[in-house]
Amino acid sequence: MQPLKLLIVEDDVSSQVILKGLLSDFQLTIVGSGEEAIEQAVNCPDLIILDINLPGINGYETCQQLRNTEQTHNTPVVFLSSYSSLDDRLEAYGVGGNDYVTKPYDVVELRTKIIKYSDSILRQRETVQEVESSHDLLMDVQTSAAKLQSISRFIQATLFCHDIDSLFTHFFKTAREIDVACVLQIHSLDGTETRSTDGGISKLEQEILQMSTNVAHIHSFGNDRAIFRWNHATLLTRKVGDMIDTLAIFMDALEAGIKAVDTESRLLRQVEQLEEQNTLVRNRVAELFGLMNTGLRDAILSLGLVAALDIEDEDHLSDLIDGYSQRIDTELQALKENNHVIQELVSELRTPPPELQGLMEDTGEDDSGIVLF
């Protein structure tokens, strides 16, 4: 720790020499007038030793002006004077003095007083440092808590993102909240898409993303930068700071969101394929029943069981075939309704509850600068 700064205001040269030798373990500034002492106040001395008899303004006036100066408003002042009356002490105290030593002074007494004040100043300085450290720690904790809260909201949002575009939107919204400038690349069923927090992606950043398939899961490099490579997403941060672990949680949430979107997409595509197959089957069944109707008539006639079918027989055969056709159509219709139920359930899963509606509102951010690979 640096030695305390003492400002000695003494016009007598012999006294200056004595004080300089007595207090050599401090950082000393020695001046010979009150005006010079006021000029030195900008250097924020820790303790001032002030003579009363000075050329120009005296020690009392000097002390008053030092007390009206921001840098020395609370700095301890020890008066050093040949005056020894109560009135002198009262006047020194009245202008803001903290202590009073009469000349000729006892060297041991003076140094003891100086040491006492220096110890008090050092304890005060340590207390201030502890308070500042506690404040910094509290601010760090509050900042970390706020960042984790933002990521927690993102995790909630991923539960209701129905496509990759909405994942990008909420990811960058959160990235801006936690002060992370980055480029994000997502690999999904629809292909690979790359965006950044500010809409711009340099050629070098594109090349790094393309060549980063073999880098470690998390790779820090250069001036506060890092790559986070997950199965379905790669994040290139332009300023990572002390957020490696926090961003890893961020990426875990994104990875889960991408998987959910891809799974939903595959499920809905499968439902669409089933719908198409059901339509084809229904059409094919109708066609087969028509052929069967004709085939049965021809078979009955070819067997010679009757020479011809009368109207009643025709109607009975048609009713029989239509009945089976309708029963099969009913079963196929049930499959179609099941597909609709699946679609509704997926839609319901992606609909946030009322308390989270605000979370899913469009951020209004410009997502220009998209690069497709």
Q: How are the strands of the biggest sheet laid out side by side?
A: 8-9-10-6-7-11
Which regions contain 5 or more consecutive residues with pLDDT less than 50? 366-373
Q: What is the helix content?
A: 55-70%
Count every beta strand, where a strand is a DSSP E run of 2 or more residues. Answer: 11
- Sheet-strand content, in percent, reads 5-15%
How does the helix and strand content classify structurally?
alpha/beta
Choose one word for the global shape. rod-shaped
Tell me about the biggest sheet?
Answer: 6 strands, antiparallel
Beginning-to-end CA distance, first to last residue = 58 Å
The average pLDDT is 82
Number of helices: 9
* Rg, Cα atoms, Å: 44 Å
Quick summary of this structure?
This protein has 373 residues and is an alpha/beta fold.
Descriptive report:
- The protein is α/β, with parallel strands linked by helices.
- The protein is built from nine helices and eleven strands.
- The protein has helices at 13-22, 34-40, 59-67, 86-94, 107-158, 164-177, 203-210, 244-302, 311-349; strands spanning 5-9, 27-31, 47-51, 77-81, 99-102, 182-188, 191-196, 218-221, 225-229, 233-237, 371-372.
- A six-stranded antiparallel sheet has the order 8-9-10-6-7-11, with helices on one face. A five-stranded parallel sheet has the order 2-1-3-4-5, sandwiched between helices.
- 23% of the residues are buried.
- Mean pLDDT is 82; it is low at 366-373.
